[in-house]
Amino acid sequence: YKRRGGCTKEEEGVQKKRRVYKKKRRVRKKKRRVRKEEESVQKDEEGVQKLDCCKPKQPTF
Q1: N- or C-end of the chain: fewer Cβ atoms within 10 A?
Q2: CA 22 → CA 15, 27, 38, distances in Å?
Q3: pLDDT tens for residues 24-61?
Q4: Residues 6+ apart with CB under 8 A from 59
């Protein structure tokens, strides 16, 4: 990355961290969605009502 001009090294590091964090959070959200679907399938097999477990709660951001 550019050391001269623009932002200082520290700011660059913060931006990079933020980018990585965003990426990780996106992946984590995806994984959570998959896990929820698997859980709902297991609950259906156990004979629990489909309605409440198939609708994952909307995460608030």
Answers
A1: C
A2: 11, 9, 25
A3: 777 777 777 777 777 766 665 555 444 554 555 555 54
A4: 29
